[in-house]
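Case study: Outer membrane protein beta-barrel domain-containing protein.
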Amino acid sequence: MSRLLSTLLLTALALPGGAFAADVEGSLRATGRWLVDSNAPRDFQDEQGQTPETDVGLSLLASGEGRVTGERLQLVGRYELGGRKYLKYTTEDVLIQAAAVEASSALGTQLGLGVEGRAKDRRGGTRDYSDLGVDAFLEYVPDVRLALRVRVGAHRFVYRPDSRANFGNPEWSFLGRYRFNRRHSLSVFGEYGARRYGVEARPPPEREGPSRGRREDGALSAGASYSYRGPLALGLTYTYQVISSNSFGETVSRHRISGSAGLRLPWSLTLLAQGALGVSRYPDGIYLSPEIILVEEDEGQNSLSLKLARPVSEHLDAELSYGLYGTSLPRNDLSYSRQVLGVGLTWRL
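Here is what the predicted structure looks like once written out:
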């Protein structure tokens, strides 16, 4: 992935005709943390279930972004590499890579046309997967206050421990943003994907009949977000998601509200807070399929995370973080709880 990103950036610089005036900028960031994790294997528990042992681990995350801008063309590339190593639950050690490249061209003063490619690869534990996508988009920006983008593309998901969760699909999406002024902005977004799987749809357990054919899901999500940028940075997002499937037990709908806040404190301290509340509905009951197992700590559950940061030099910050995650599956008498305490350093350039 990193070789692909470097190649595309160098190609953009070499474009003829002065399309790029070599306006190049970029940034690098690396974070290392010692972690104390109360539920490293991310297990769901019933009332009689044994609580996982608290574990200690080390996490590392490095990221880079580059941007090349010309009179009419722009190329943006991003790459992230992250890893986590536990002392006891070594089966939960993980390595994650993610990359995205976007190239766009201005069509006059208000329209832009572009393509984007993205990839994410996760290795480790029982959640190995690759997530790939490519899109073409059209952007309309009549002034500094309004921006609209429509996108069409293809998506491929590969889950290595269980191929039943593999799917591919076309996708359509839109994003609209309106800035009331330099502090207040509102966005609306939506996305739809017609997922196709390589396995037969599961029939209801109490009913036998003709095959339903291949599994097919319709994945729809839509929402709105508000942000405020001032002495206090605030963000609030509502998302509705529904996955409608012809396979029994795979239909789900979710309502989720998430918020974030950032505040500068005395002694050069910065406090960052994030929280989310969600309600999920499973009309057929809950089956712990790969889709549920794949849920990351900041997705699908109720959560609250806090981070306190203070610079120790021009390019180095010290950080103290805490995260609380939890949810319950009442129809299955299962619950999920996890707390993570972290101490680390962030270097940025």
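For the exam, be able to explain this: The chain has two helices and 16 strands.
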